[in-house]
Design a protein that fits this description.
- By secondary structure, the protein is mainly alpha-helical.
- Helices cover 67% and strands 2% of the residues.
- The protein is built from ten helices and two strands; from the N terminus they run ααααααββαααα.
- It has a two-stranded antiparallel sheet.
- Helix 1 crosses helix 9, helix 3 packs antiparallel against helix 4 and helix 5 runs antiparallel to helix 6.
- Pfam families: YdjM (PF04307).
- Keywords: Hydrolase, Membrane, Transmembrane, Transmembrane helix.
- GO terms for molecular function: hydrolase activity.
């Protein structure tokens, strides 16, 4: 099993690489790139929400709760005063940090129901629904956000499985197979509830706005292949670009 530092570094790097790739291929709008990158990094930490006893995990939960509370404030900002928004932010943070995450930690065991593929889908669909309904995001951008959260979540699970293989000893550790699973046999009712929750969350999501058709389009990957290596010299035009940027700042 990978530790928190490994998940944080690798998850952030993978999210950044995915956001950059989709950006240069034209599938990710520039104004949504930073948000999707952040959501992917957060998603890579979410499988450990059932592990509350470690300091890194508690820090991660606080960050996710802060971001979630800020999303609520953004949704409410056109309708309420600053004082009301401060109260709403505090209430949302407490509800997420000590309510939702506290409940998850109480009713789950580590590497149980939360550490599963349907949990990844649930977090992704919840992101789509929340960003669409609360933040008034376009359907395609909402689905991109959910895709990054789910992708970060899956990357965490795969990284745990990789760390379950002892290459030097040529053996599988006892933890192999416990990271990527379809549910928790120790909690059949919870597993059924999670699948039912996925169905309910999907019903709340908007149409994908053509995102899935775009992601399987051969043209997308052709454009990405064309940008993999420089067409001319390395960093050709960097000096002129830096000079123009400097003139704009001044």
């Amino acid at each position: 099993m990978a530790d928190f530092k490994t998940h944080l570094i690798c998850g952030t790097a993978a999210s950044g690489a995915a956001a950059t790739s989709l950006l240069i291929a034209g599938a990710l709008p520039r104004d949504a790139a930073l948000g999707c990158f952040a959501l992917g990094a957060i998603g890579s930490l979410l499988p450990d929400v059932d592990l509350d006893h470690s300091i890194p995990a508690r820090v991660a939960f606080r960050v996710v709760s802060l971001v979630g509370a800020f999303m609520v404030v953004l949704a409410l900002s056109p309708h309420f005063s600053l004082a009301e928004l401060i109260v709403a932010w505090a209430a949302s943070y407490l509800a997420l940090r000590h309510g939702l995450f506290g409940l998850i930690n109480t009713i789950t065991v580590h590497r149980g129901l939360v550490h599963s593929l349907p949990a990844a889908t649930a977090f992704a669909l919840a992101t789509v629904s929340l960003t669409y309904h609360l933040l008034d995001c376009e359907p395609r951008k909402a689905w991109l956000g959910g895709l990054f959260v789910g992708g970060g979540f899956l990357f965490h699970l795969l990284l745990d499985e990789l760390f379950s293989v002892d290459l030097l000893g040529r053996r599988l550790k006892r933890s192999f197979g416990t990271a990527v699973c379809l549910g928790d046999l120790r909690n059949p009712l919870g597993t059924l509830a999670l699948y039912a929750g996925n169905w309910a969350l999907y019903r709340l999501c908007p149409p994908d706005g053509g995102l899935w058709r775009l992601l399987i389009d051969h043209e997308l990957y052709r454009r990405l292949a064309l940008r993999l290596l420089p067409a001319q010299g390395w960093f050709d035009g960097l000096a002129s670009f830096a000079g123009e940027s400097l003139r704009r700042l001044l």
